Amino acid sequence: MLSPLPTWHCPQLGDESCNSASSDICQLSNNSWSWDFPVHTSIISEWGLECASSLVKGLPALSFFMGCLAGGFILATLADSSLGRKNTLFLSCLIMSLSSLLTIFSTNVWIYSVLRFVNGFGRA
Fold this sequence. Notes:
Layout: E1 8-9, E2 34-35, H1 43-46, H2 54-81, H3 85-103, H4 109-123
Antiparallel strand pairs: 1-2
Protein name: Major facilitator superfamily (MFS) profile domain-containing protein
InterPro entries: MFS_dom, MFS_sugar_transport-like, MFS_trans_sf
GO molecular function: transmembrane transporter activity
């Protein structure tokens, strides 16, 4: 799921260059602002994507839905031709479970996006 930019604030009162209502977070130094919530609340704050392009921010959601599309075509074909519905359902659940478990260990947005693709593939 695409995470919106989390809210942030200026910890130093009276700092005129830092105003969360009008300042661009990308134009400020890293120590002049901080997130309102813990860093792990959003993938944007966790991996420092606040100044990344919208393509990179939306990549995990795009990957998931592209995986759903690919999985729908491939798993439906397998269910009707060779594996059967019961075995395809088992394979789908296995793919989703393993990719969900491995998502925990993602170290960057690229690995996370690949695992979201695999999860979407299994969801189809």
